[in-house]
Amino acid sequence: MKTTYFTAGRGLAAGVAMLTASCNEPEQATAPQPQAYAADAGLVCTQQPEGTSYTIYPQCADGTAIGDVMPYYDSATNTTYSYFLKDIWNDATNQRHPWYAFKTTNFYSYSALSTGEQLSCASATCAQDFAVGTGSVTKKGSAYYAYYTGFNPNSANCTNRKEGVMLATATALNQPFVKNTSFGTLYAPTGQGFDETDNFRDPYVYFDDASATYYLLVAARQNVAGTWRGVVAKYTSTDLTTWTYQGRLYDGGSTNFFMLECPQLFKIGDTYYLLFADINSKNCYYRKSTSLAGPWSVPNGTARFDGNGFYAPKLITDQYGDRYLQAWVPRRAGSTDTGALQWGGNLITHKLYQLANKDLAVTIPHTLKSYLQAQPQAIVKNSQWGNVTNTGGGTQSYRLISTANNDVANVLYDPINLTRFKISTTVSYSSAAKDFGFLLGACDGYNQFYSLRFVPGQNRFSFDLTNRSNLTTTTVATADVPFPLQPNTNYTVEIVEENSVVVVYLNNVAALTARIYKAPKTSWGVFVDNSTATFSNILVTKPS
Hints:
The protein is mainly beta and 544 residues long. 3% of the residues lie in helices and 46% in strands. The longest helix is centred in the N-terminal third of the chain and has 10 residues, at 10-19.
C-alpha cells in the first residue's frame, strides 16, 4: 500500500489560514467559477475526458441527452418502460423533443426500444404538437393511453395557445403511439384566471380505486386572489377520453412557485402524495394528504429528498410493491463544471419508500447496489495530514480531528480508474463547528478541491465547487439536500459514480445527485474542518 504523509504545499495552507485570522427548458443559474490550479505532488486534479459509456445512468446511444422521464411498469414482463423526451430539435426532420424509451428489469442495464421514436412531432407549422412535451402513460383494457403536451412555439401566429394536452394510443408496448385526432385538445380553462396562452403542460393520469375515477393533473399558472401562482389543475374522467375541469388540486400553499412542473399523484397506504418540480430552484418537493380533496401539508421532516440534480421525478410501483422514482441529471455547457446548466442529461433511478411518520425517503435500488458491489476494488492511500488516527487495523478507517477553521485534516487516495463503481463508508462525528465529508478532484488536501460535505450547523449535505478559502456559511451550494444530523450517530454513505454522474445516498433516507465532470479518475479522499469525525471501513466496489 502506498502511504506517504502529505507535506508539500503547507506553506500555502498557512496563507489560507491568515486570510481567515439553486419539464420545460427553464433559465439556469450560472455555476460558481472555481479556479484552475496545479496539483501538489502525487495528486491528479485535471478534469479527464468525459466518458461515453453509460449503462446504469443511461443516455441515448448516440450520446444525445434525455429529459422528463415518464416511466410505465409492465407487470406481465416485470419491465419498466422509461419514456423520455430526446433532446433533439431538428426542423428538417420534424424532430422537436420526440418521445423515445428505454426498458429495464433491474435498473442497471437498459436497452432502447427497437421501434425507435415512440411519439412523433407534427410537420404543420400551426399544429399544436409541432413539438411534443412531457406526459404520462396509463393502461385501460388492452390499450395504452399517452397523454402528452403539444407545444407550439409559433402559436402567436396560429392558435395563440402555446401549450395544450393531447392524446395518443397504442395497442402494445414497444409500438409507437398513434395520435388520436378525434380527441379535443385540452387548453387552459377560459375565464378562470389561468394563463390562457402559455404554461399548461405535463399531464399526468392517476386512477383512484375508491371512486373508480381517473384524475388528470396539469401544471399551469393562475391568478389566485390577485396573485399569479404556479398551480396544479385537476380534471376527472371515467373513460379516459371525456374530461371535466374540477378546479385546482394545489396552489403551492404558503409558497408561491412560478410553476409546479411535472406533477404526480400517488397513494401509499392511507396517504396521498403530490410530487412536483420547482422550475426555479430545480428541486423536487412533495406534499401529503389523507384525502384527494386536501388539504395538502408539508412533510413532518424535510420537504425534499434530493437536490437540483434530480429533476422532474416520476414514480412506478412494481409487482412486489417496491416503488422507484426516475428523473434526470442535467449536463453543463462545454462538459465542464463551470458551464451553465443545460436541459437534459442522464436517467437516474432511486428507490422510494414510506417512513413510519408517513414522510418519504429514498435509497439506492437494491438491484443496482448488488450489481455495484460484486467485487472489491483496491484503493491506494496517497497521503494524510493533521490529527489522523487509524481506528481499524487492516481497514481504511480513520478518526480525523481539526480544532480550528481551515486547519483541514485529511486522508487522500489515488484516483479510481474505473467507469462505474461505488464508495461506501459509515460516518459519525462528535463535534462539528464547521463541516466534514469527502473531497473530489483534489489539487491539494486543504483548499483546492470540490467538497461533498456534511454541515451539521445547517442540517444539510452539500456539494460545493467553491474552494475552502472562499467557503462561508452563506455560500450558495452547487447542490444540497436537507439532512438532519446528531453527534455520536452512525450514518451510512454510498457514493455511486458513472463517468461524470455522481449520486450520494445518505443513511438510506436521502440522496444528492450531481454532475461533476472533475470527479472521474482524479484524487479524492475524506476531510474534517474544525470538526472531529470518524470514517469507518471505506470500501470501493465494482461490477463483476
